[in-house]
Hints:
Elements: H1 3-42, H2 45-78, H3 81-115, H4 122-151, E1 156-159, E2 164-167, H5 170-174, H6 177-211, H7 215-254, H8 256-263, E3 274-279, E4 296-301, H9 304-310, H10 323-338, H11 348-375, H12 385-394, H13 397-411, H14 447-475
Antiparallel strand pairs: 1-2, 3-4
Helix pairs in contact: 1-2, 1-4, 1-6, 1-13, 1-14, 2-3, 2-7, 2-14, 3-4, 4-6, 6-7, 6-11, 6-12, 6-13, 7-8, 7-11, 8-11, 11-12, 11-13
Amino acid sequence: xxxxxxxxxxxxxxxxxxxxxxxxxxxxxxxxxIMQTIWFRTKNDDWLRITKFFGKLLLVNFAIGVVTGIxxxxxxxxxxxxxxxxxxxxxxxxxxxxxxxAFFVESTFLGLWIFGWEKLPxxxxxxxxxxxxxxxxxxxxxILAANSxxxxxVGAVWNEELGRAQMTDIxxxxxxxxxxxxxxxxxxxxxxxxxxxxxxxSGWWIVRSVRKGDTETAKRVYRPAAYVGLIAIIxxxxxxxxxxxxxxxxxxxxxxxxxxxxxSLCVGQEGAPFSILTIGNLNGTVGDPAACDDLMxxxxxxxxxxxxxxxxxxxxxxxxxxxxxxxxxFTERFGEEYGTDMQYIPNLMISYWSFRFMIGFAAFSGALxxxxxxxxxxxxxxxxxxxxxxxxxxxxxxxxxxxxxWIFTEMGRQPWVVVPNIGEDGxxxxxxxxxxxxxxxxxxxxxxGSMTTFTRLCGALAVVWFKLMRKDVLSGAPELPVPTEPGSxxxxxxxxxxxxxxxxxx
Length: 506
């Protein structure tokens, strides 16, 4: 296997793997902060139990996420050193802000929250977890600002003498229109993950508790927690619908080929439908008029693709160009520089199916929310094994939806490393040449072995994460210690005033 191909696979594995943990950290930190706020205001210790329960799961996930994120950062400089040299002046600035202004704050306040139980005033301790939630969200903003430059470069000029991009306006980079629509979409998607995680685990514990005869715990502890998750799913779902619509329209304006590929629309048309299923060869030669002859779109929603792209269902304003049209247009624009044989449309099969998997897996969370709100209405709990199974099935679904969403976003950027801004002054397109050796098809010595080792290490880390999370989930919400009178002796005859052993906050 060639070095370039290995580098792509390695970075792809790292990125998809890392993003398993990121949305859960963002979404769950906010929900844990909400749970602790309810406990602070109501003084109901059942909310304290559920806060500590999901707080411990948050800590495990955060730790694994940090490890995988560091690996990803190193790969920018090692696997993609040419990319870092070409656009590092722009790309590195928001990433540095993320490390200094967001991650540092996030880690500091998380540490205070972990070890601050019974040591910090309750208001200060509550503020710590809210700072964690705020910082994780801010961290996401800076990272998305860096990624948005690859989708829509602004705030920079191309320096011919140095052969790299130079940033001219950091504010333009941070207020990139792509960032402004991507950020709320990503955050609401993270809330969907967090809400589904809380609702699914709480729902599973409700059924388990009722079937064990502990209906009281199911009602007092797990039912309120489930409601927090279910309401989060509803709000996140509405937010995803609104922000997804906005993102689709700006994506069409900036990358028309990506929208056409998402529908496998070969020939442009007005009132373009959205197909639920397409059969035929999705990997035909783009630009060939006959490439779409064997494609058949099944179960289509009329005019929906046009609305997603343009905001119009019918009429001339609803026209969406096909992949052949975009290929012809880009060949005319860039053919002299990059050649007439270059394909400017991303892989149709990956674009088409990743877009539908993103939507389809997200629907599982909606189904869980509707079912959960019904069976838990008016103070009820349930012992339905089918609801328990639905909770377990829905649990991984938003993780998969997020992953496929990012696969679509990044694979749909092909063949560009940085997408060109058509018709805008002072911005540019970049296609990076492959590293020496890979360009000639030279194999990477020992590359396959190192790739295998790397994948196995990632797999081992995933097993550790799963076992730790499973162990804490099966432990359930912790019982709170029975308070003792001030000045009384402890059970072993010692003095309660002695310093308590630190046990990871719990």
